[in-house]
């Protein structure tokens, strides 16, 4: 694409307001990697990570299905042109309204026994016979430990006890299982061993529960590098090799769609958050760059600061999905062409809360009021996770730079 910097400067000059900018070429690259390295699998784009229309449309145009986490995300995927079997709707706590709205638009993945009964009831009322999946909370963890209590899914060991209940549901047919245990995994060994266990669980579901599985959804977990100091990238080549072996091991026993949810993997690194410096001040020896829409434009950097404050010195930050992060997760750049000397600054937002700190005490080229600040890794769980309504500031805009350099905004 035309130099990143000139596109960013042009957009800021024209709109004079904070924005996100997403690069299609980076998304495209990630999509191609997955398609090439895992030909046995189908991929679902996790819409919650970034539901911006041009992104959803582009990824779905590459043959990805949708990992929908709400009825509204089912509608987003449907509007993008997906047929119902390409939309897998999985979340805890679906309401009757959610089920009525999505029953014939998606494959619903039931998250509890109550939900299974409700889906069956709704299907009966509508005189439908529907195919559904079940989210299972397996009796193991990703690290090979024993299963834990979870708000997600149905405990694996209860399945057999409830076989009569499953068999009594006249208007639904269980055709798939869904397991998701952890996000942001960078060790391919952990991922493929986890996949292996899900294959074994699928065999149990087929052989003992009597379900004819049409899909196995292995969930998300493909990690990205947040910290250049602490993280090593997920070794896609080795994961791909192991997946091929797994496929060979199970292909004679399982004839189902094998599905992975992409999570943050495809879009995170394609996004940048851009804002500008509206004030510079000093207080008792510290310098502050005040930007428009800090925490309320892009929340994630402030979460790093918050977690750092509660983490013992020298320890890794403990996140949870979708807030996994690292101390050096984000790169802060002042969009300046000329070189100037470095100085220590903290970047803060324009909210009346002391939580509104994007980064403390980093070295940056000397900045002026009006300079543009660019922050990396703003593609996933970024706009969608940010409290943009707080304090009623104008909302950040979003731009999508296509591979042919056309820029669109919606
Ligand atoms: C069921 C499910 N699938 C996929 C994802 C997204 O994947 P990730 O967080 O690994 O990027 C999540 C994250 O919360 C999830 O809960």
From TrEMBL:
<dbReference type="InterPro" id="IPR022644">
    <property type="entry name" value="De-COase2_N"/>
</dbReference>
<dbReference type="Pfam" id="PF02784">
    <property type="entry name" value="Orn_Arg_deC_N"/>
</dbReference>
<dbReference type="Pfam" id="PF00278">
    <property type="entry name" value="Orn_DAP_Arg_deC"/>
</dbReference>
<protein>
    <recommendedName>
        <fullName>Diaminopimelate decarboxylase</fullName>
    </recommendedName>
</protein>
<keyword id="KW-0663">Pyridoxal phosphate</keyword>
<feature type="domain" description="Orn/DAP/Arg decarboxylase 2 C-terminal">
    <location>
        <begin position="19"/>
        <end position="379"/>
    </location>
</feature>
<feature type="domain" description="Orn/DAP/Arg decarboxylase 2 N-terminal">
    <location>
        <begin position="27"/>
        <end position="267"/>
    </location>
</feature>
<dbReference type="InterPro" id="IPR022643">
    <property type="entry name" value="De-COase2_C"/>
</dbReference>
């Amino acid at each position: 694409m035309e130099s990143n910097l000139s596109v960013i400067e042009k957009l800021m000059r024209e709109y004079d307001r904070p924005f996100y900018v997403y690069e299609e070429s980076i998304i495209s690259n990630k999509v191609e990697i997955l398609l090439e390295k895992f030909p046995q699998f189908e991929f679902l784009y996790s819409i919650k990570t970034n539901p911006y229309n041009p992104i959803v449309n582009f990824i779905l145009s590459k043959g990805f299905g949708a990992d929908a986490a709400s009825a509204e995300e089912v509608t987003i995927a449907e509007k993008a042109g997906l047929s119902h079997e390409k939309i897998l709707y999985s979340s805890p706590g679906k309401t009757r309204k959610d089920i009525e709205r999505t029953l014939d638009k998606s494959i619903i993945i039931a998250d509890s026994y109550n939900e299974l009964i409700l889906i069956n009831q709704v299907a009966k009322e509508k005189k439908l016979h529907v195919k559904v999946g079940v989210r299972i909370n397996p009796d193991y963890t990703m690290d090979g430990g024993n299963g834990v209590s979870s708000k997600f899914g149905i405990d694996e060991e209860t399945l057999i006890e409830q076989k009569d209940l499953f068999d009594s549901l006249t208007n639904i047919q269980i055709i798939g299982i869904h397991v998701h245990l952890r996000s942001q995994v960078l060790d391919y060994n952990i991922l493929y061993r986890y996949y292996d266990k899900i294959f074994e669980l699928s065999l149990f579901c087929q052989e003992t529960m009597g379900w004819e599985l049409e899909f196995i959804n292995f969930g998300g977990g493909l990690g990205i590098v947040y910290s250049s100091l602490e993280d090593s990238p997920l070794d896609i080549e080795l994961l791909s090799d192991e997946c091929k072996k797994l496929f060979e091991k199970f292909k004679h026993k399982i004839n189902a769609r094998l599905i992975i949810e992409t999570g943050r993997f495809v879009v995170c690194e394609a996004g940048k958050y851009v804002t500008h410096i509206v004030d510079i001040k000093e207080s008792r020896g510290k310098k502050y760059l005040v930007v428009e829409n800090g925490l309320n434009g892009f929340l994630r950097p402030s979460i790093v600061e918050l977690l750092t404050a509660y983490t013992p010195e020298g320890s890794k930050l403990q996140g949870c999905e979708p807030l996994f992060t690292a101390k050096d997760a984000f790169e802060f750049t002042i969009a300046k062409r000329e070189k100037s000397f470095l100085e220590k600054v903290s970047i803060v937002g324009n909210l009346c809360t002391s939580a509104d700190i994007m980064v403390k005490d980093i070295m940056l080229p000397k900045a002026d009021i009006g300079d543009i600040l660019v922050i990396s890794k703003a593609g996933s769980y970024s706009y969608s996770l940010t409290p943009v309504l707080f304090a009623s500031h104008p909302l950040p805009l979003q731009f999508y730079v296509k591979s042919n350099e056309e820029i669109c905004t919606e």
